[in-house]
Structure formats: structure tokens, C-alpha cells
Design goal:
Elements lengths: L2 H19 L19 H9 L1 H10 L13 H24 L1
Helix pairs in contact: 2-4
Length: 98
């Protein structure tokens, strides 16, 4: 692949990422207590671990979500991403071994 085509693809990807990031919104519920309080790191880790199951259930049940909006912010996000990484990282690692 020549360098002009590579740069064009890179610029197109950056433009697409910029446009999609404009749809992101900050969570206005951070730090506010929900019915079970404010979710922290451990709740985020648990929610990340059960993400695949919660996603499937959320398709059929409107009262189930995959992300707790009443959270402590960065620590919840870190736990959520770590739990998600454990699940999907182990799936990808097992596929790589085969």
C-alpha cells in the first residue's frame, strides 16, 4: 500500500472519529445516589463482568441497563472497563490459542 493511500485512510478515520465523538454526552448523574446508592469501583467491575448477559437481557427488558448512570465517575468507569477487558480479553485469548 502506498503512503498517499495510507494517509488518506488515516485522515478519513480521524474525521470519522471526530464526527462520532460529537455525539458523546457527559453523564449528568455522576455522584448522585440512585435507588441503591452511588456505584463505585467494585460495582463497575461487576457490571463489566456481566456485560454480555446484561446486554442480551436489556434487549428484551427495558428496565435492565448495561451501565449504571448513578456512579462515582472515573473509578466506576475503570472498574467497568477492567471487567469488560477480563471477559472479552479471555474470549479473544482463548480464540488465539486454538
Amino acid at each position: 500500500m502506498n503512503w498517499k493511500k495510507t494517509i488518506s485512510i488515516l485522515l478519513l478515520c480521524l474525521l470519522l472519529a471526530f464526527l462520532v465523538s460529537g455525539c458523546a454526552q457527559s453523564n449528568q448523574e455522576i455522584g448522585t445516589a440512585g435507588s441503591s446508592g452511588v456505584a463505585g469501583f467494585w460495582a463497575g467491575l461487576w457490571h463489566g463482568l456481566i456485560l454480555p448477559v446484561a446486554f442480551v437481557i436489556s434487549l428484551f427488558n427495558d428496565s435492565v441497563g448495561i451501565y449504571e448512570i448513578h456512579n462515582s465517575g472515573n473509578w466506576y468507569n475503570f472498574g467497568f472497563m477492567l471487567g469488560t477487558w477480563f471477559v472479552f480479553g479471555s474470549i479473544l485469548a482463548s480464540k488465539k490459542r486454538k
